[in-house]
C-alpha cells in the first residue's frame, strides 16, 4: 500500500540517495550499510539494484520492518527509535548510513545525527535526503541544516556535497546530503 502510494507520488528519494552513495564508494559489494527509518525497504531495494550486498534496516516500527523483510535485500533488522537516545549499536559499526524520507514532524529529528555519526567508522559516509520545502515549513526539520553545520564545526563530520534535485516527491524538489565521518 505504502509502496504503491509512493510509486503514484513519483517518490525518487530512495533512488537518489542510493546513487549518491554508490558514486562515493569504490567497491560497494561488501561495505556495511545501515538504512535508517527504512520503512518498507525502498532504499534497500535501490541499494540492491546497485550491487550493495551487506545492508541492514533500522526502523522504530516492527510492522514496517516486517514489510522490509519481504524484500529480501537486508541482512539484519533493528527495531530502534532514532533520537538523542543511545542506539544499541557499537561505535564504528558501519561503513555508511543511508536514509530518505525520515525527517518530518512526528518522525525523525536532527537530534539523531550524533548517533548516526557515532555508529559510522571514520572515513565512512552518511547520505540523507529530505523534501526541500520541509527545511522551511516543517517544525521538525527547521533546525536540520544548522545542526548539521554545528556538528561539522565540532569536527565530527565534513560535508562532501549538498545537491538540490527535482521531483523528490509529488513534484517537489529534494535535497540530498553526503557527509564523511571524521
Ligand atoms: C515516510 S517513511 C520513509 C521510509 C523509507 N525510508 C522510504 O524512503 O520509503 C518514515 C519511516 O520512519 C520511521 N520512523 C519514524 N520516526 C522514527 C524514529 N524516531 N526512529 C526510527 N524510525 C522512525 C517510520 O516507522 C517509517 O517507517
From TrEMBL:
Methyltransferase domain ranges (all copies): 33-124
Domain of life according to the entry: Eukaryota
SUPFAM superfamilies the record matches: S-adenosyl-L-methionine-dependent methyltransferases (SSF53335)
Pfam families (alphabetical): Methyltransf_25
InterPro entries found in the cross-reference section: Methyltransf_25, SAM-dependent_MTases_sf
Coiled-coil stretches noted in the UniProt entry, renumbered to this chain: none
Classification via PANTHER family: METHYLTRANSFERASE, METHYLTRANSFERASE-LIKE PROTEIN 27
Protein name listed in UniProt: Demethylmenaquinone methyltransferase-like
Species the sequence originates in: Branchiostoma floridae (Florida lancelet)
Gene symbol of the encoding locus: LOC118411405
